[in-house]
Amino acid sequence: MPQWSWPDAQKMREAARRPGMPGWQSGLIEHLADAEEWVGKTCSPLMRAIDDLIDRLREWLNENRKAIALALLALIALALLAALAWLLREVHAVTWARTRLDYLRLVAFGTGAPGTAGAAQYYAAMERLFALRESPRRPTANTREFLAEATEFRPHLLPQAAELTWLFERARYGDTPPGAEERRWLRDLYRALFRELG
Questions:
Q1: How many domains would you assign to the chain?
Q2: Which of 81, 88, 99, 131 is 20–30 Å from 73 (CA)?
């Protein structure tokens, strides 16, 4: 099936001169032919400039094919890294890894810091456990507010979390730093929370 295309000015004029063509129609076709010629003359420098630009762009692309491919690969790699970072943040991968390291350091090897710093380490590790389960601590929340918010939908964890919070507060605000017995108690409480939340 032949494709139809817009007739050029010469074909329009030939059509306008057909015998039996009404004068108004013939005049209209002549005006269309004049307009088509004017558009062609006016736009031809622009079309040549666009064609030249496209040719130069093709030459540049052919000359710099390797650099363009490397740049595209770098952009793809950056996009993949950004997607990976977003995905890791969404699945809490860093928090998950930190909770595992906390467990190894504080429970399995028992190498937490002594005294008040050790109690603070256990409390921070408990915060990370709750953050892993979609209950992060608000920056403005004190220990009691965090305890209430974190255990609101997990009331079965309230005893362990409350005791660990109490030991942390006692170590932080009390007169004597926690001894070996309190550290064992903190370790047992954290182990129980880790089994539930980790």
A1: 2
A2: 88
